[in-house]
Amino acid sequence: MITLAHVTVEYPDATPLQDVSLTLGSSTTAIVGPSGSGKSTLLRIIGGMQVPTSGAVSIDDVAVVTASWRSAGDPRVSLIHQDYRLVPFLTVEQNLLLAAEMRRVRRTSADVTSVLGKVALPASMRGRLPATLSGGQQQRVAIARSLIAGTSVILADEPTGALDVKNTERVTDILVDLGRQHGLAIVVATHDQSVAQKLDHRFELAEGRLVQLA
Ligand SMILES: Nc1ncnc2c1ncn2[C@@H]1O[C@H](COP(=O)(O)OP(=O)(O)OP(=O)(O)O)[C@@H](O)[C@H]1O
């Protein structure tokens, strides 16, 4: 359960979050809103990658870790980006094991096989470099990377923004499955209504306020 209590974020020229209070359960949630409304800011705040101007954020009643020297944020949370951000000179397996190592968690080849399975990728893909994979496959590796260290919250910032319709559907279905079958809390910032409609809850962010749509 993710809880925001009276969270405000003020930048010199914008106040994307203004006294936002919100509770999100272990399910899938879409955040929609115009460009520049603060969706990425909201995700960074939930993940502890950025400290709010005021207010508090917790996961399962424990405050998120926001050590300023540690851009990775809270270890319970992983962030997925539109442009995948895999390390280009490492294989799929090395990318996954590096993510575990960075979280100081010991993982093996068997764990790599297991998380690749959760994103419907064959274990035989472990030796490939990211550039040899399609965009949809790279995004699925990025989701697997977010799973390998055992995080309970996945934040996805426009995860399908660079994908075609078929891959958008596939990646969205995987995120929905992880939320519904594996009990993760998944929060997706998206411009794509077809993505938002598939998730359990929808919020619109506009002028500093979050309004629940469904
Ligand atoms: N580090 C920062 N310093 C100053 N202003 C910032 C910073 N980060 C974001 N902003 C401003 O805060 C507002 C919200 O930005 P944010 O990137 O969170 O919006 P967004 O909804 O994710 O946008 P998009 O959909 O275009 O990605 C914008 O006006 C942006 O210019």
Can you offer a commentary on this structure?
The chain has 214 residues and is an alpha/beta fold. It has one domain: Rossmann fold (3-Layer(aba) Sandwich). Helix content is 31%, strand content 25%. It is built from six helices and ten strands. The chain has a six-stranded mixed beta sheet, sandwiched between helices. Strands 2-1-4-5 form a four-stranded antiparallel beta sheet, covered by helices on one side. Helix 5 (165-181) links the parallel strand 7 (153-157) and strand 8 (185-189). The longest helix has 17 residues, at 165-181. It is globular and about 50 Å long. Bound molecules: adenosine-5'-triphosphate (ATP). Adenosine-5'-triphosphate binds next to helix 1. Adenosine-5'-triphosphate (ATP) binds next to helix 1. One of its GO terms (molecular function) is ATP binding. InterPro entries: AAA+_ATPase, ABC_transporter-like_ATP-bd, ABC_transporter-like_CS, ABC_transpr_LolD-like, P-loop_NTPase. Residues 2-213 form the ABC transporter domain. Pfam families: ABC_tran.
